[in-house]
Design goal:
Length: 356
Amino acid sequence: MSGCAGARNLLEACLGARPGDRITIVAEPAEADYYDSASVAAVIDEALDAGMYVRKTVVASALRTEEDEKRLLAMLDDADHVVFFARAGDQIRFHRLPAGKRFAVSYALDIGMLDSPYGATSYDALCRFKLAVDELFDAAGHIRVTCPAGTDLEGMPTPAAPGEVAEVSIRRFPMLVPKPVSARRFSGNVVLSRFLLGTGSRFYDPYALPLASDIRAVVDRGHILRFAGDDAEVARINEHYRLISGRFGIDPWVVHSFHAGIHPACRYERPAETGYERWGGAAFGNPRILHFHTCGDYAPGEISWNVIDPTIIVDGVPIWSHGRLLAENIPGARQTLSDHPDLAELFANPAIEIGI
């Protein structure tokens, strides 16, 4: 065995893989410098030692066209389970995928993340916890989101529209966020700080837009009415939205949905500005970060807003308070916390490092 508890958690709990199953590992070229090779090797070793058949295939860091996606899916036909150590998996996470096999994308980008409480905490426990959060938001009559920078947005969730994909079709590993909450009935202000960032749906240049000052986004029922603040920064943001929306033929002014991180052991220590794309692909699972999907009337949109240290009040009850997830305030989660005291302990002493 590899001795990596996170690798076992990924294979056995997340994918449900068993001896004799065929596993395809989809990895990026080493020079991409996004995932490390040790995490991939740990999963391969664990699978082989468990009597599984493993094939590794290397793909480009990003899918650029529909043909790229079709070629990728064709390569996976003979697998029972597919694990993406590649951003291509993130790109297709909201797509409808072939039935009969399980897909997972790893957000443990290196062996330090995989072989730690972040990767090793019971996947089933985190899924049960996520479901309790989903149920709380689905049943909510009123939700208010605030943050120390001045965000103040409120409204009520709405069910997904007919035919809309509201949840990812690829399993996230670890489980990092609940189902997105629709922003169609939300209004107020969201303060944009530090940078705007792509969502991992498609990769474009510039993927990040650093901000010189805080800017206020005025939102009315899920639509951006205007940006307010320094005139030069507002002009840059408007131009960025027009550029990205024009490139993909989408509505720039939609605020589609939002969700906050739920993994108390999600830790990101590199400064965000040293690699915005990597930060956006790993840090979002920390409860100190809530992100909005904007620019495009679909999840995850193309431009994300990242709100730091949110307070989320659901029907008068604080569920997040200044970036701390109050797990005990979620009725449906109490049994899970009782059954998994290690998870309860992580919530009592959560990771606070988020690269900001």
